[in-house]
Specification:
There is one protein chain. The chain is mostly beta strands and 994 residues long. The protein is built from eleven helices and 48 strands. Helix 3 (174-191) crosses helix 4 (199-215).
């Protein structure tokens, strides 16, 4: 050719093929044939992420999937939501299925390197075959099998370090904090009616009490009465004594953590057999003391085909986990036991250890003496968490066996049995020297949880080609049994110091034990048809019975119908060269959820207790014979394609509606109270519905694709609207700072409105409720509520500005809708750049819209009378006098962005819960950056290796949000907490193949 003797041919790799096989409900399917919405992640992508739980790798992997993996305690599983929130009182968690069988354990029990792929079934058409628990989506996890003729041995080693991934709030330093405390005390002397001082007396009052009764600890080189001038400024000569190096309590509770992981696996496959086995060890020491996780895991997946018509095998997996944790670090229990709470709100003048008059730390027996002074309520979280311990040990075992017979050419019959056993033992010890255990001379708690479930499946498959027509069908039966056993005991009064086993405590204080059982029975079927690999139709049906419901209402039917059209395979598309694949699909289906009620929801029962030393029973639940499943119906329509052999694109619209939601409805007390706390009688009813509508868009582009270079950029987004459609009796249901109401989302805030700061007084003003607004009182209108509750006492808090009435007390303020916690749009950005064997990749996630109630920030902004706590730097911007030119009638007298006066007496009113603390919860997070290198085959061959690769990655390197210190991924409901934040993990790995 033009004199050339050699022709170079370069084949282009297609990144995603429409003919790829993906795991679906009870089988597999080509991507072209899918009529439902299915997202999949390959095991290689999961393995690269340094995460304890494999499902954390789903974050950003596909639209419609929200993953909250921000809890930094090692060993914790992320929380996942698929296409919104369909239940109000029930669970919104997806169903997990491992190797075709529902799984109820912790995903962190699994070794990520054992996973072949994860498929996410997002709509009813793809998930209906799991009917009774599929309304929140299904996550299918498939483990590896032996696939090669030659035995392959893989060794993976990873080392990494842990650190805190989100910086703490900006808090005041010592000087500013001291001055703010003085100002707050001085202002309270004038605002507190019980004191009523003028300014001069208030200054004297502040001087007299600031150190003696409020701060109570002098860390300076000057005496108490020499620290401040009459303006509340700290004496320039005052300096902190040199020994006080322990004033930041975070330094004592946090550390640089360590992560190490080792896995060895072997796989081999032949015409008649397949073997995959692995052993793994993972140890994580989190970024706080006493947050550790250790896991041993093993797996053996075996299959054997002695003849062409028979195949059998088994999957055996086991794991053992040990973790130490801080029981109250999740925000539960008392604030004194939560190190995050104490460290965040500890004022910068209180040391961890005791000091002498010169500032030096005191020692006893060679160890520093912990500070348990009166101003700390005789507590010390660092000391307590060192002396206490909280330990969890868990062992799991899962055995699955199957046999498949092929007969009459087109038929396959499979029998599969699965048994899963999980046993957890939890031990908590409170020391006798300080903290909650001191009054009992030590306390010991022991919890034992045992879970056992069995699944038995029989599945008949048939498939046949009739020319260009293909038909396949599946019929199956599935039986599921679950049992949960719980035992608890508590003792006090330790006998021998240092021995923390239960036998060393003399007094039994409590003991309890019970068990629960749950059973489902299911019959299901599927029929699939396609013509010429162009037109696909699929229908499925599942009949489920649940032991949670009365026999007359126990059974429910769940079904789906879907179709897809491979437009690109039509004759009229043959000459459209820029379209490689183009597919249209549409589907409708219904799934169920029986998790909104207890195991014995339909039965009347009594609860046992003890009264005056005698056994007692009280009514705990009324009969609810007619309750049944919550049902979710989903309509899904999508267009998917690949263009110019470079661009993959999908556009998906879904309408997901949940009906027959389960609510507790109040009845007359004459039927019998069902609570010992409140005089109410309730019964469960199927009343209510919720809607989730949304659009999903995903695009990825091969920007560069040459001999040595590959560059792909991807993005996805999900727009979703959640709305409650129906509630019992169409009445709103209060839910703390939120409210369930028809037409609003399930996480919509219903709060008092902060109007702003009155610049004449520095006080916060709120929108007054109509019933307390005396200006609206109309004696001639009996139906009007305006002003009907206004009294002399309520009007004490009224402020009238330019003819409009406000209130300073939220007790008399009006509540209204203030925005939803749910984002308007969320999604991810990804990129992968390769040069020869070197690959750099990154994943970013984002969320736009939605609000979070920043309760931690609110606490830091409140200079309260109850104690001298840490304070946010924004307090320095607080009102400190009437601005020049401001008058009673100034149109801008109310500053909507103002910060109220620092006043310990008025802080309760000025910093009350309101929409002032609702912050924009938008964020942009860099979730992962990784760099990997695959050594060339010629080098590996010289070393006698089948492959060698190294990689470096950073998990959670950065997150950008509305405020430093805010954790925007704390919860889906828009809450905030004093607990773990995302951990930043640096990891380096080595993979050797033999």
């Amino acid at each position: 050719m033009d004199g050339r003797t050699q022709l170079d041919i370069v084949m282009e790799e297609e990144a995603t093929s429409i003919d790829d096989v993906v795991v679906v409900a009870y089988g597999t399917a080509s991507r072209a044939s899918l009529t439902g919405s299915v997202a999949s992640v390959k095991g290689d992508a999961i393995e690269k992420r340094p995460t304890t739980s494999a499902t954390a790798a789903l974050e950003g992997a596909a639209p419609g999937i929200q993953v909250n993996s921000s809890y930094g305690q090692p060993g914790n599983d992320p929380t996942i939501r698929i296409r919104g929130f369909g239940s109000v009182n029930g669970t919104n968690n997806p169903l997990y299925v491992i190797d075709g069988v529902p799984y109820g354990g912790n995903i962190s029990d699994l070794n990520s390197t054992d996973i072949e792929s994860i498929s996410v079934l997002k709509d009813a058409a793809s998930a209906a075959l799991y009917g009774n628990r599929a309304s929140n989506g299904v996550i299918l996890i498939t483990t590896r099998q032996g696939r090669k003729d030659k035995l392959t041995l893989n060794l993976t080693m990873k080392q990494g370090i842990y650190e805190r991934g989100i910086k703490e709030y900006d808090r005041l330093g010592i000087k500013d904090w001291m001055e703010v405390q003085w100002r707050g005390l001085k202002n309270s002397g004038m605002s507190d009616p019980a004191l009523g001082y003028n300014e001069a007396d208030a200054i004297a009052y502040a001087h007299e009490n600031i150190m003696a009764t409020r701060i109570q600890n002098n860390i300076f080189n000057l005496a108490d009465d020499q620290l401040y001038d009459d303006n509340g400024r700290l004496n320039p000569a005052a300096s902190v004594l040199p020994g006080y190096t322990d004033l930041d309590w975070f330094d004592e509770i946090e550390r640089l953590g360590h992560r190490q992981e080792y896995t060895v696996s072997a796989d081999v496959g032949g015409e008649k057999y397949s073997v995959f086995s692995s052993l793994g060890y993972l140890k994580e020491n989190g970024y706080t003391h006493h947050s550790d996780f250790k896991r041993f895991s093993g797996r053996a997946n075996l299959s054997y085909r002695p003849t062409k018509w028979f195949r059998t095998g088994m999957n055996l997996a086991a794991s053992s986990q040990e973790s130490s944790y801080i029981a109250n670090a999740d925000g539960g229990g008392t604030a004194f036991e939560n190190p995050f709470y104490i460290a965040r709100y500890m004022a910068p003048v209180y040391p961890v250890f005791k000091h002498d008059a010169e500032g030096a730390i005191l020692y006893e027996n060679g160890r520093p003496v912990y500070n348990d002074a009166d101003y700390l309520s005789n507590r010390n979280t660092v000391y307590e968490n060192m002396a206490n311990h909280d330990k969890l040990t868990r062992e799991t075992m899962n055995l699955q066996a199957f046999a498949t017979i092929t007969f009459l050419k087109d038929f396959q019959f499979t029998v599969k049995g699965d048994m899963s056993v999980r046993n957890s033992r939890e031990e908590e010890y409170d020391n006798p020297e300080i903290g909650d255990g001191k009054g009992n001379n030590g306390r010991w708690y022991f919890y034992n949880y045992r879970y056992k479930n069995y699944t038995f499946q029989q599945q008949l498959n048939w498939g046949h080609d009739f020319g260009q027509h293909h038909v396949d069908a599946m019929l199956a039966h599935e039986s599921y049994k679950y049992r949960y056993d719980y035992a608890y005991s508590a003792k006090k009064n330790i006998m021998l110091p240092g021995l923390t086993t239960g036998s060393n405590f003399s007094d039994l204080t409590s003991i309890s034990a019970y068990y629960n059982t749950y059973t489902t029975e299911s019959y299901l079927g599927r029929l699939r048809y396609n013509f010429d690999e162009r037109y696909f139709v699929e229908g499925s049906y599942r009949r489920d019975g649940s032991s949670r419901f009365h026999p007359d209402y126990r059974w429910g039917g769940f079904w789906s119908l879907g179709a897809s059209w491979m437009i690109s395979r039509e004759e009229f598309m043959r000459n459209v060269g820029w379209v490689n694949d183009l597919k249209f699909r549409v589907a409708y289906g219904e799934t169920g959820n029986d998790q909104g009620v207890g195991y014995y929801a339909y039965k009347p029962f009594y609860t046992s207790n003890k009264n005056q030393g005698m056994g007692a029973f009280y009514k705990g639940q009324l009969a609810a014979d007619d309750i049944q499943w919550e049902t979710t119906a989903t309509f899904d329509i999508a267009l998917e394609g690949r263009l110019w052999n470079r661009v993959n694109v999908s556009l998906d619209y879904f309408d997901k509606r949940s009906r027959d939601l389960l609510f507790d409805v109040q009845l007359p007390l004459s039927v019998g109270a069902t609570s010992t706390d409140d005089a109410i009688a309730t019964v469960t009813r199927n009343i209510g519905s919720v809607s989730n509508k949304g659009i999903e868009v995903a695009v990825d582009v091969d920007v560069l694709r040459k001999k040595d270079w590959r560059w792909n950029i991807g993005a996805n987004l999900t727009w979703i609207r959640n709305k409650i459609v129906k509630l019992p009796d169409h009445k709103d249901i209060p839910n703390g700072s939120r409210r369930y109401s028809e037409g609003h989302s399930i996480y919509e805030f219903y709060y008092y409105h902060f109007e702003g700061v009155d610049q004449m007084t520095g006080n916060s003003l709120y929108t007054i409720a109509d019933e307390y607004n005396i200006d609206l009182l109309d004696p001639n209108d009996k139906n009007s509520v305006g002003g009907t509750k206004a009294t002399k006492d309520t009007q004490e808090y009224d402020v009238v500005i330019n003819g409009k009435r406000y209130t300073r007390n939220t007790t008399y303020a009006s509540r209204d809708w203030r925005g939803s916690a749910l984002p308007t749009v969320y999604g991810s950005l990804s990129t992968s750049l390769s040069w020869k064997n070197l690959t750099l990749s990154a994943l970013c996630t984002y969320s736009i819209g939605g609000k979070i109630y920043a309760s931690s920030y609110a606490s830091l902004m409140s200079v309260r009378s109850s104690g001298a706590d840490a304070t946010h730097k924004d307090v320095l911007k607080s009102w400190n006098g009437i601005p020049e030119g401001m008058t009673e009638t100034s149109p801008d007298r109310i500053d909507p962005n103002g910060i109220p006066v620092v006043d310990t007496f008025l802080s309760t009113y000025n910093n009350a819960a309101s929409d002032r603390w609702l912050k924009d919860n938008s964020y942009f997070a860099i979730k992962n950056i990784s760099l990997s290198y695959q050594f060339p085959k010629r080098i590996c061959s010289k070393m006698g290796l089948g492959g060698l690769s190294v990689d470096f990655s950073v998990e959670n390197p950065a997150i950008f949000s509305a405020m430093k210190g805010l954790n925007p991924q704390y919860s889906f409901s828009g809450g905030d907490g004093n607990t773990f934040v995302s951990a930043r993990v640096y990891s380096i790995g080595l993979n050797i193949k033999l």
